[in-house]
Design a protein that fits this description.
alpha+beta, 8% strand, 4-stranded antiparallel sheet
């Protein structure tokens, strides 16, 4: 217990002895962990958006006006048996026109059709997984019973409508964001590590005579290393707490405003996820601080 008190007291002494360098170390850790936290939260938001888009991915297979209900039902039963299909439903021409009336920003267009209905009936396929949309679409196109009832038997693929291209572009974008985020996080960790390493080296140089005397009187490497490790940990804890404070302010004031401005995007993040990120930032800060201090001490503790 007395050793721990000594380590803590000496770390505070080192903290105030090189105040400008210490502040630089804390600010570096703070900014590094803050950006890491922002990228983590951004990653959660991106995953929520991707999941929301995936849930909306479906296949619409248009059928001919001349197709009998029995033939259409036969195709629906076959599609229901495909792996990855969650549900299959049918939308007749009247319902398709009504859906169009509610979805368009200019519903008066429907009134100008003079009772004509140019929209075809359709088989609507909901998917269990968005990634399987291409395989299921290919199976539908290859189904000869569907070719017989689709509204364009010369080109059955033209009778299908699904948003796989949009999802593919979104996946490509999110993968690029994740790769860039990981690279930036790694770079920030290295920068913070180097800065703490240099800060502790300066503190060691300022006390090199004291360290030499402690070595002469038989002090162990652990006893000499303790205050510097504690100082590095102190820098890391302060930096991580400052980062958490800014992220908590953003959670309470910035995110709600963005969610209000963009209500169609699922930007909400559970507080439990924030807690996980906060704990991860503290642990990452401590690891950076302790490793930076330990590496800085290695050359001065060689026998």
């Amino acid at each position: 217990m007395s050793s721990l008190f000594y380590f803590f007291r000496e770390s505070l002494t080192g903290f105030t002895r090189n105040l400008s360098t210490t502040l630089g170390s804390i600010i570096t850790i703070f900014l590094s962990l803050l950006i890491i936290g922002v990228f983590c939260i951004g990653g959660v938001v991106v995953n929520n958006v991707v999941a929301s888009v995936e849930n909306q991915v479906s296949i619409t297979a248009f059928v001919s006006d001349d197709a009998s209900q029995e033939d259409v039902q036969k195709v629906m039963d076959q599609i229901q048996g495909y792996e990855g299909v969650q549900s299959v439903s049918f939308t007749d021409k009247d319902q398709a026109l009504e859906n169009f009336r509610h979805s368009t920003s200019n519903p008066e267009i429907v009134d100008q059709l003079d009772g004509q209905n140019p929209l075809p009936a359709s088989i609507d396929v909901e998917l269990a997984e968005a990634q399987s949309v291409t395989d299921i679409a290919n199976q539908i196109v290859a189904n000869q019973d569907f070719v017989a009832v689709c509204d364009n038997p010369d080109d059955p693929s033209d009778s299908l409508n699904y948003g796989q291209k949009t999802v593919d572009k979104l996946f490509s974008l999110t993968n690029a964001i994740r790769v860039a985020g990981v690279a930036l996080i790694a770079l920030l960790i290295v920068i913070a590590f180097i800065f703490i390493n240099n800060t502790i080296r300066l503190a060691i140089l300022a006390r090199r005579r004291e360290i030499a005397i402690m070595r002469l009187v038989g002090a162990s490497n652990g006893f000499i290393r303790g205050p510097f490790l504690a100082e590095g940990a102190l820098h890391a804890i302060i930096g991580s707490l400052l980062a958490i404070l800014i992220l908590e302010i953003a959670r309470n004031f910035v995110l709600p405003q963005i969610s209000t401005a963009l209500p169609w995007l699922p930007l909400s993040v559970d507080f439990s996820m924030f807690l996980v990120i906060y704990v991860a930032l503290i642990i990452a800060g401590l690891v950076i601080g302790l490793l930076g201090s330990a590496f800085a001490m290695r050359r001065y503790l060689k026998v």
